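At this stage, I put together a protein sequence along with its fold in token form, as given directly below:
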Amino acid sequence: MTRRKQSFWRRRRGVLTVVTVLVTAAVAGGLVAFEPWRLFTSSTVNEEIPVSVAEEAATPTVRSTAPSPTRSASATPSPIGTASASASPTPDDTPAGPRELASGRFVTQEHETTGTARILRLAGGERYLRLDSFSTSDGPDLHVWITDQAAGGSWGKYDDGRFLRLGELKATDGNQNYRIPADADLAGLRSVVIWCDRFNVAFGSAPLES
């Protein structure tokens, strides 16, 4: 092999090596950014409807300190399910449940998303966003927002105006609660959005209607 041919093959091997390194880096970067395996993964969180500290404190606890009565042959048993007056809470003792301030059903945007979003106010004044019968696709860097944009429409509009971050999405499916900060002003906010922060798109959104 002549010296000229040897030089040609050395240069060619160098180019191929550089190309291989660049392609490998690009593929690795794409995998890290898009996390395509999430198309096949899911998770579930099922939380009870939240209860405020005030509600827990108001819930009556019935404790009997009297000895159990001895049933005689002539005694007439009480009907099943009948309790004494002292063991029954009065209507004033029963705490009020959460009050719904607004709600709406999810519409699909970047990925299929279903369920209902509700803003709840508890007896103690705490506010929560609750997602009922919720389901969406898995994805990287998913967050829950309340925004001033209308639900539906363009995927990327929700970070153009005012929005309230409630944290990372807990799971792709289930019933979930998100605490709303006490000082948060919800006036003018009219949709709940499942937001992919990495790619600035909405997986789905729900209108908040009183």
